[in-house]
Amino acid sequence: MIGALVLGADEPLVEWDWVSRHTDEIQQRLWQHLSLTVVAVGIGFVLALALAVIAVRWRWTYGPLAGLAGVLYAIPALALFGILVSIPAFGLGFRTAEVALVSYTLLILLRNIVTGLDSVPAATREAADGMGFEGWRRMLFVDIPLAAPVIIAGLRIATVTTVGLVTVAGLVAAGGLGELITEGLGRSFSTPIMVGAVLSVALAVVLDLAFLALEWVLTPWARARPSRGGQR
Amino acid sequence: MTDAPPVADQATATPTEPGPGAAAIRLERLTKRYPGAAGPAVDGLDLTIPRGELVALVGPSGCGKTTTLKMINRLVEPTGGTVWMDGVDARTLPVHELRRGIGYVIQQAGLFPHRKVADNIATVPQLAGWSKDRVRQRVAELAELVELDPDLLGRYPSALSGGQQQRVGVARALAADPPVLLMDEPYSAVDPIVRARLQDELLALQERVQKTIVLVTHDIDEAIKLADRIAILKVGGILAQVDTPEDLLRSPVDEFVADFLGDDRGIKRLSLMRVRQARVSPGPVVAPSDSAADARGVMAAQGTDWVAVVDPDGCLTGWVGAAALDGNAQIADAVPEPFAAVVDPDTTLKAALDQIVTSRTRVAVVVDAGGRYQGVLTVDDLAEGVTR
Fold first, then answer.
1. Do B99 and A130 touch (CB under 8 A)?
2. Which chain A residue has the Cα nearest residue B107?
3. pTM
4. What ipTM was assigned to the predicted interfaces of this complex?
């Protein structure tokens, strides 16, 4: 499937002619790449949030949960795709890719969410309890908002990582920019490889900046500076 | 059983109309044992907190004062005994309802850093589902009540000074007008000057709102200044003595309490008493129209070398020393010097003592709000007040 890339001596790195003839396909691959990433991080975030709430509520579960997420994270991507494809229920395609991608986001997201929730000052939590917040309300209105900067930091790492991993998902015919790269490798043709790689990096940068903007919007309180005014 | 008097509705109880001996909170054999701990944190504590009073729980660290406080709003669940809230067993109330009826002020305020000051204050009304207009109006009222600059309402807590944060903490605790307020070392994180001002503000606030307040502090002077009643706890949550500050200082039940109160109990009692409660001597007084000979007569009779000059309206003009009388036929011819130590009837005896020991005449002159002379206060007068 993956052949060695041998460039002809007079072949340019990028043939712009090819690019202009394949804009539709490139757009489609980019869109698939974005969908694969967003769905994986989205599902991973919901799962990790649920696991983190469990881990914070019942502390003893954190070790086993983090351990399990760690094992998933440690499986080589190529091997995991290979194993999943061989299972009849998965096979080639979107679902297989998502299972693998989601499992890679879990460790990063779980760790960051738990760290974020742990960073909420004890006095703040106690004040919330003392004022009559029920457990779920305190989580929703106090703990999670205060953990937001750390949680978003986790989302940024998970997203950038996933954008990179999605290129491998091209191997299981899930679509995405990886398909361009695979095609280029198969034909020893550098142009689709370059297009896929550059767009993948650009997508990672754009998504990272989007999260940065989200953080800026969601945590205006973190930017508030202590006043220089005297005590009253 | 006296344990369960007719149930008063928590939400509609009006703490401003105290019934005779009505207890807002009663702790009955309250006990907390932490698993694995050698002894109980709180051991069979019986304590009555009368409606509208400020009761301070004080004691050395490890005496269980904070644990006791947290058992009232069930942040800590007792392992034995009962907390009666207006005659209702606190365990029978849904915990969130119980807590929304109890204001809670903690060390370093514990404000929500992600919510603006106004939203911090509005926390409990919002939890209770008040309308937006009603919440906004209440927040404005509270800002005024705790003397918080309304401009600060739109800021985040991190932009506020420690003292301002503590005011917000008090406003937040009072937001839904709970009959009971729990305060856990509220002023320990602010500097002494701000602390003294916040303490004065709390006293003024309590005059207006008449809440039932339980205050935990390690600072006996704070307790003496603020509390109607002080409960002193020993390590292990054992009640050593509960009394008014006056009675506590006058007659500590044992060595432990006496030690805890410190070796300046007499001075501390002076800080509780006002000039109006003390014996005031008439002092050596002359009128401007009196002769120098009259003044010398007054000095001889009073054993002083100076006289106070009081005009016919009763206003104090100053003092004249024996030397200044030489060559003057009348008091009016001498130029009276102003007294350095002038106190009014509301001055504490401790402040008066300070004035006395630093003044040349060894007395503090008492002048009322209208500037009229009331007499003089000597060290003997103060000692009389303390030993009485």
1. yes
2. A123
3. 0.77
4. 0.77
